Amino acid sequence: MATSARNLKITAALLAGLAMSGCSTMDMGSNSAKTAATGSAGGANAEKANSQLEKCDAPLGTMAIIEDTSAPWYGILTGQYKLGSTVPVLKLLVQQSNCFVVVERGRGMTTMMGERSLQESGELRNRSNFGKGKMVAADYGLSPSITFTNNNAGGAGASVAGFIPGGFGSAIGALAGSMNSKEASTLLTVVDNRSGVQLAAAEGSATSMDFGALGRLIGNSSGGSLGGYSNTAEGKVIVAAFTDSYNNVVRAIRNYKQQTVAGGLGTGGNLSVQDDNDAPAPATKKTTRKKKK
Q1: What is the CA radius of gyration of the chain?
Q2: HEC string for the chain
Q3: Does residue 260 form part of some domain?
Q4: Into how many domains does the chain fold?
Q5: Which residues, including other chains, have CB under 8 Å from residue 84's CB and lie 6 or more apart?
Q6: Do residues 73 and 204 share a domain?
Q7: Please, are residues 186 and 203 in contact by the beta-carbon 8 Å criterion?
Q8: Model pLDDT for residues 65-79, shown as the tens digit of each residue
């Protein structure tokens, strides 16, 4: 009896969704549109940040986000998935965590240097205070990459039709055919800008279920049967994977232990190679033949 009532409720929600398909509503601040990187940050203060985001009591230094736009993953991100740069998302996560102070080294640098050029040309007011020595150095660089994404890791639509009795089963089964699991795996590396030494690297991953047309029609009206899922785009699962990566970075640096090499870094290393320390071979003298008279 309970199962029959639930099925009728799902069917009613589907029909209601079809009836309202020509209508539109605006829900500003909608939770369904948010990603794992949510809320805001102002200085050390963060508002409505993801409760699962790792945080620090005090910043460990300044950080620039360095994105390799020539890498293959970036071409897939912007071409196949039609998504933008990962930098704004990572900036929000880093500032909200209070583990690093974010400094601009991306496209915003063009504007920053343009203002300085205007100052040098005499176009800005005398009190603009754009003199030299104002810019803050980036102690560390954070580099993102997407190591794997799967837009359809496994369909689940066929089983839905079995829950719906009568002729509605095939119709809803067709709508549910777009149900699939989305997966993403990401990698973040932290590099010390003064020495070039990599300090930390962390992988992150996320998986979600996209209900496609069915999810958009019935939403959460199924009495909790779909409560653990939402209509999630590729971008949301990638953001979630980067959030997981950054959490792993914070955990790594929280337990950071400096690597040391006997003799000092970059002085040759301690892995021997045959004949590596041999003296260089003497230069050979060129011999010239005397011309016969």
Answers
A1: 29
A2: CHHHHHHHHHHHHHHHHHHCCCCCCCCCCCHHHCCCCCCEEECCEEECCCCCCCCCCCCCCEEEECCCCCCHHHHHHHHHCCCCCCHHHHHHHHHHHCCCEECCCCCHHHHHHHHHHHHHHCCCCHHHCCCCCCCCCCCEEEEEEEEEEECCCCECCHHHHCCCCCCHHHHHHHHHHHCEEEEEEEEEEEEECCCCCEEEEEEEEEEEEECHHHHHHHCCCCCCCCCCCCCCCHHHHHHHHHHHHHHHHHHHHHCCCCCCCCCCCCCCCCCCCCCCCCCCCCCCCCCCCCCCC
A3: no
A4: 2
A5: 78
A6: yes
A7: yes
A8: 999 999 999 998 888
Same domain, 77 and 145: yes
Q: What is the pTM of this model?
A: 0.70
User: Would you say residue 271 lies in a domain?
Assistant: no
- 92 and 183 in a single domain? The answer is yes
100 exposed, middle or buried (CB, 10 Å; 0-12, 13-18, 19+)? buried
CA 35 to chain CA centroid, Å, is 11
73 in Cβ contact with 92 (< 8 Å): no
Q: Rounded CA gap, 174 and 160, in Å?
A: 10
16 to 20, 25, 105, 211: CA distances (angstroms): 6, 15, 50, 17
Based on the domain organization, do 68 and 207 belong to the same domain?
A: yes
Of 7-11, 17-21, 189-193, 195-199, which range is least confident?
A: 17-21
125-178 per-position pLDDT tens digit = 989 988 889 999 999 999 999 987 666 655 444 444 444 455 555 554 554 445
What DSSP character marks residue 155? B
Domain, as residue range, for 130: 104-137
